[in-house]
Design a protein that fits this description.
118 residues; 3 strands; 5 helices; mainly alpha; elongated; Multidrug-efflux Transporter Regulator, Chain: A, Domain 2; three-stranded antiparallel β-sheet
C-alpha cells in the first residue's frame, strides 16, 4: 500500500480496534473535514457510525486513508485518478483472495476425497 518512506513520516498506528476522527487526523496528517470529504469521494472508506453520527475508523480505514493521502499529496493524483487507482488495487486484491480461497477449497476437497476412498 504505502511505500516505507511514507510510513516513516507518519506516526505508528496503535493496536486499537477503533479510532475517532481526531485520532485518525493525527495519525494520517489530514484535517477532519478532509476525512469527511474523502468519505464521499472514495467508496472504500466507510467508517462505522454510532450514536450521534460519530465516526469510528478501523485499522484498515487508517491504511486506506494513508494510501489516499500518498496518492493525492505525494504522487500528484487527482481525486478521480486516486479513486481509479484504489479501485484497481481492490480488484487485484479481490482476485488474489479469490484464487487463494479456491486453492484452499481444492486442497480440502482432495483431503475429503482421500478420506472417503478409505
Amino acid at each position: 500500500m504505502l511505500e516505507p518512506s511514507n510510513n516513516n513520516e507518519l506516526p505508528a498506528i496503535p493496536g486499537k480496534r477503533y479510532f475517532t476522527i481526531g485520532e485518525v487526523s493525527e495519525l494520517c496528517g489530514v484535517k477532519p473535514h478532509v476525512l469527511r470529504y474523502w468519505e464521499q469521494e472514495f467508496p472504500q472508506l466507510k467508517p462505522v457510525k454510532r450514536r450521534g453520527n460519530r465516526r469510528y475508523y478501523q485499522r484498515q480505514d487508517v491504511l486506506i486513508i494513508r494510501q489516499i493521502r500518498s496518492l493525492l499529496y505525494e504522487q500528484g493524483f487527482t481525486i478521480g485518478g486516486a479513486r481509479n487507482r484504489l479501485a484497481g488495487d481492490d480488484a487485484q486484491v479481490d482476485l488474489n483472495q479469490s484464487q487463494q480461497l479456491i486453492h484452499q477449497m481444492r486442497v480440502e476437497l482432495e483431503e475429503l476425497m482421500k478420506i472417503l476412498r478409505r
